[in-house]
Amino acid sequence: EAGLRLAASLGYAEDARVLRKVLRGSAPALPAGSVARRMTDTEFDAWREHERIAHAEVLREHLGLGEEQAAERSAHDLAAAFPEGPRGHGQRLWVLEHEGATVGTLWVTDRETDVYVMSVEVAEEHRGRGHGRSLLRWTEADGLAEGHRAAELNVHTRNTPALRLYASLGYRPFQHHFVKPLI
Known about the structure:
The protein is α+β, with helices and mostly antiparallel strands. The chain has a domain of 101 residues: Gcn5-related N-acetyltransferase (GNAT) (Aminopeptidase, 3-Layer(aba) Sandwich), CATH 3.40.630. β5, α4 and β6 form a beta-alpha-beta unit. α2 crosses α3. The chain is globular and about 50 Å long.
């Protein structure tokens, strides 16, 4: 707490947090009517393009990259993560279906002892119905199945709904990321 107050007193603003949850026991089951399955090759192509655009936007907004530079870096980052398509080593892509409808996607990657949530997204028309919670429960199940001891994710501090969801599931701050304009 003292370090957070010091950073604020020096004009730094918290921009993002890495949250962590220790995985113990067995993960809660998905709700009735929900199933997680591996992403297909066909779905991967559309997902990758959507993720490339979203990642480029984050790079523009948070790193100040120009549009062309952000687009190139985003494409490079995804190509590096998935050199063999959706079955890249240490990368897992999941699709959440509820009552037969595709409602969301999840990208997790293996770290040394943790599973790291790279991207979790619920389709806009399906938000507010607990599907984000289901995807995070699946993260825990996947992590436990792979032998991981914790799950981690990054969240921007202005994303209040996500912060509340993660806190309700037991994710706690592990790292704080601050920014300060130098102009």
